[in-house]
Sequence to fold (165 residues):
Amino acid sequence: MKRLTMLIATAVAIICLTTQVTDAKQKSPKDVILKLYSDHQPKYQKEINWKDKNILTKYLSPELVDLFMKDDECTKKYHGVCNLNFDPFYDAQDYDDKPLNLKIKEVKSNRSMCEYRVSFFNITNIALVYRVVTTTSGWKIDDIVYPNGSTLKQTLSIPIDDVSH
Fold:
């Protein structure tokens, strides 16, 4: 009887864990963006640490996480700013105290990649295009296209020799 109870408890635990992993993988691409903006609100002193790989993997694709880590290594090596001299999720260095008024609209979608136009107010109206891809751990942000046409990956990929220190 004791053995049967243990087997049932183990089976229930496995089912619960599997369900949690499945639920995490089935989150929509839009949910990843909403979670990022929920967790990262610098004007309220609520920020994600984009130097922490474990935190970044919650939101970003492995390739983008690697680029953030390379930029962090550069800042440590040169004791200053390397490629990332702004908040990449707000395309800003400063924040105002007005409501963000976040709007997310799907622009393009297929099974493995989606694009969303993310618009909000921070000193001025800003519109970014988020590219979100499916990975083995669910939907993740893979790149951001800024109003000037540059992308986050391009910015983080500038060779270190080209960055003034």
